[in-house]
Design a protein that fits this description.
Elements lengths: L2 H9 L40 H21 L27 H7 L4 H4 L12 H8 L13 H7 L5 E2 L2 E2 L4 H11 L10 H15 L1 H16 L10 H5 L9 H16 L2 H19 L1 H21 L1
Antiparallel strand pairs: 1-2
Helix pairs in contact: 2-7, 2-13, 3-11, 5-7, 8-12, 9-11, 9-12
Length: 306
C-alpha cells in the first residue's frame, strides 16, 4: 500500500466531498482544446493537494513519526520506503489510455503499475512489535480517535510497553494523527479527493462528454470493434489481466487511442472536467481556503521532520 493509500485507509471513506448544494445545470464550456496526452496536465482542484514530491516528503515524515513512537515504546523500527510517483506521470491516465506510444508498446497495460518497484521486505515483526505498530486487532473503528487532541485526552490503550501506553490504533495511527489530523477542526484529508470524485461523476453524465463517447464508439465500430464506452473498453473486449499487453490488446488499444484523437475525446473531457471543478471551487471557497492553510502547515512540519 502506498503512503497515500494508507492515509485514505486510516481516514476512512465516510467523509463527504461537498458542503454545499451545488448547481444541477451543466456549466458553460467556453473553449475546448485539441489534445490527447494528459501526462503533466493539471486541473483546478490539483492546487489544493500535495504534489508528488510533497506526498513523498509527507510519507517520509509519517515514517519518522512512526519510528519515534515505536522508540518511545522500546522498539527499534524503520518505516519502509514508499514508491515515489513520477511528477511527469501525474494525471497520465486520468481519462484512461490516451498515449499512442504506450498503446503501441503495452496495449492496455499500465507500465507504471506493471514496473512499480517491489518494496524491500523489512523482516517479520514480533507480536509485541505488531501490537505497538498497529494496535489491537479487535479495535472498533468507531472507538479510534479522529484527531490528535482526542487521542491525547484518551491517553492511549490499556496495553503498555516500556512503561508507556500503546496509542489507540498503534503508532501508525498516532503518526497519521500527528501529521494529518492534529486538531478537531481540521478539514478531512479526503475532502478534495471527494470533490474530484463528485466532479468525475458529473462529467460522465455531461451531454458533451456523452456525445464525445458516442463519436468514439462510432469510430471504433468502423475499426471493427463494438464498444459502448471508453472506460469499459477492456471489459467489453473481454481482456483478462494477462491479456492486457498481448497482440490483440495492442491492436485494439492503438485503434482506441486513434479514435480518441480523431473525436478529440480528451480535449472535451478536459474542458468539461475543468468547468465542473471550477464550479466546485466556487461552491466551497471557505473550506478550500482552510485546506490550503492546513496543507501548508502540514508541509512545514514534514520539512522539519525530514
Amino acid at each position: 500500500m502506498t503512503a497515500f493509500g494508507a492515509v485514505l485507509a486510516l481516514a476512512g471513506c465516510s467523509a463527504g466531498g461537498s458542503d454545499g448544494s451545488g448547481g444541477s445545470a451543466e456549466p458553460t464550456v467556453t473553449s475546448t482544446p485539441t489534445m490527447l496526452r494528459t501526462a503533466g496536465v493539471s486541473f483546478p482542484l490539483d492546487a489544493y493537494q500535495a504534489t508528488a514530491g510533497q506526498q513523498a516528503m509527507l510519507a517520509r515524515a509519517q515514517g519518522v513519526l512512526t519510528s519515534r513512537c515505536m522508540a518511545r515504546l522500546g522498539f527499534t523500527y524503520q518505516a519502509p520506503e514508499q514508491p515515489v510517483t513520477s511528477a511527469s506521470g501525474s494525471n497520465a491516465r486520468v481519462f484512461g489510455l490516451v498515449d499512442p506510444d504506450t498503446a503501441a508498446r503495452y496495449g492496455y497495460l499500465n507500465p507504471e503499475t506493471a514496473n512499480a518497484p517491489v518494496r524491500a521486505a523489512t523482516g517479520s515483526l514480533t507480536e509485541a512489535e505488531r501490537l505497538a505498530l498497529s494496535g489491537e486487532d479487535d479495535l472498533d473503528p468507531a472507538d479510534a480517535p479522529t484527531n490528535l487532541e482526542e487521542a491525547e485526552r484518551a491517553g492511549g490503550s490499556d496495553v503498555k510497553f516500556n512503561g508507556e501506553r500503546v496509542p489507540v490504533g498503534g503508532c501508525v495511527r498516532e503518526s497519521y494523527l500527528r501529521l494529518y489530523a492534529r486538531k478537531a477542526n481540521e478539514v478531512d484529508i479526503l475532502f478534495v479527493f471527494n470533490l474530484k470524485r463528485e466532479a468525475e461523476s458529473k462529467v460522465r453524465a455531461d451531454s458533451q462528454v456523452r456525445a464525445a463517447d458516442k463519436r468514439w464508439s462510432s469510430c471504433m465500430a468502423k475499426a471493427g470493434y463494438k464498444l459502448t464506452a471508453p472506460a469499459d473498453a477492456v471489459e467489453e473486449l473481454g481482456l483478462t489481466e494477462s491479456d492486457l499487453s498481448g497482440p490483440r490488446a495492442v491492436t485494439a488499444a492503438k485503434a482506441d487511442v486513434a479514435c480518441k484523437q480523431r473525436v478529440n475525446l480528451v480535449g472535451v473531457r478536459y474542458a468539461v472536467t475543468t468547468a465542473y471543478q471550477h464550479r466546485l471551487i466556487e461552491e466551497h471557497t471557505q473550506t478550500l481556503s482552510l485546506v490550503e492553510k492546513q496543507l501548508a502547515s502540514r508541509l512545514l512540519l514534514a520539512a522539519e521532520l525530514t
